[in-house]
Amino acid sequence: MIGVHNSITNSNRIGGNAFGLFVKQQRRWTSPPIKPEEIDHFGELLKEHKYNAKKHVLPHGSYLINLANLDNAKNEQAYSAFLDELQRCEQLGIGHYNFHPGSTLGLSKPDAIKRLAANINAAIKATKFVKIVLENMAGHGNLIGSTWEDLADVIALVENKSRVGVCIDTCHTFAAGYDIRTQELYDKMWSEFDKIIGLKYLSAIHLNDSKAPLGSNRDLHQNIGLGFLGLESFRILMNTHHVEGLPMVLETPNNNDEAVWGREIKLLESLIGKSADDPDFIAQREALWKKGAQERKDMEQKTKKKDDKKQSKLKVGKKRKVETDDEEE
């Protein structure tokens, strides 16, 4: 279905009270402007279904945008697309805009972060109210944002700090090595986040289980309760005071069946007020864990093979170095 207004009807149909959307085609640099009648229709549906665009709507930025790009022409192209999306948000009355911080692409991380922050500062000056929300990443390759320190370094360079925030993706957090599977570990993660970034910058949550193990640096989303995070992680999160009122958006697989998201919304809402020893919760947790067992086992085997291959290459490399050193002697 085409048109930003369809995001509202789609969310309402599955029982959502917050939602994400793309404000233009996410894999194209440019798209036609939003028509005035489309803006009006979006606003009418927000009122009809009682969504607050400043609080409950979390657009996702285009996957093409990399504001840290060293190439000046590509950086300018990325900035133009970024600014266009922010302006579309403001046309629709949307208060938050979530995006991936980008990749260093050969730059040192401090220099890449400076370029990223410079673009954020320029975009804030060119817009009126939309808050720019940095999403934490899984840590693959040269991506910026897989550590709290990365995000803190970006925020430190943003001049108007009332216009910047952070979106925590549960899958990315786990893949980056932050364990949140028990209350103790979960509290430790937030304590570190608060110390390094500050809870005042927490602006949104992406709710995803993880198909890959802890610290895998793999951005592989799984349905709630089936992955390596398990349902307990989400029970803890759904009973956390400092996330109350934040937009929470599911990005789990749906296999072309939107009803999956509806069921997951109901599941997550049912966790509010539940204790870890609640019999109904335990039954749900164990049923979902069992359902995802084979996929987790397969992923563990793939991960082990990859790690073994990497270790084998390291050993070969060390052996060759020793042989080379012996020859030189």
From TrEMBL:
One Gene Ontology MF term: DNA binding
Record field: compositional bias (Basic residues): 312-321
Keywords: DNA damage, DNA repair, Hydrolase, Metal-binding, Zinc
GO BP of this protein: base-excision repair
Domain Xylose isomerase-like TIM barrel span(s) in chain numbering: 12-270
Cross-referenced SUPFAM superfamilies: Xylose isomerase-like
PROSITE patterns: AP_NUCLEASE_F2_1, AP_NUCLEASE_F2_2, AP_NUCLEASE_F2_3, AP_NUCLEASE_F2_4
Biased composition (Basic and acidic residues): 292-311
Region (Disordered): 292-329
Cofactors (names): Zn(2+)
CC terms in the record's Gene Ontology section: mitochondrion; nucleus
Keyword Endoplasmic reticulum: no
Highest taxon of source: Eukaryota
CDD domains: AP2Ec
Keyword check for Iron: no
Record-stated family: Belongs to the AP endonuclease 2 family.
PANTHER family: APURINIC-APYRIMIDINIC ENDONUCLEASE, ENDONUCLEASE IV ENDODEOXYRIBONUCLEASE IV
Classification via NCBIfam families: nfo
HAMAP family in alphabetical order: Nfo
Protein name (record): Apurinic-apyrimidinic endonuclease 1
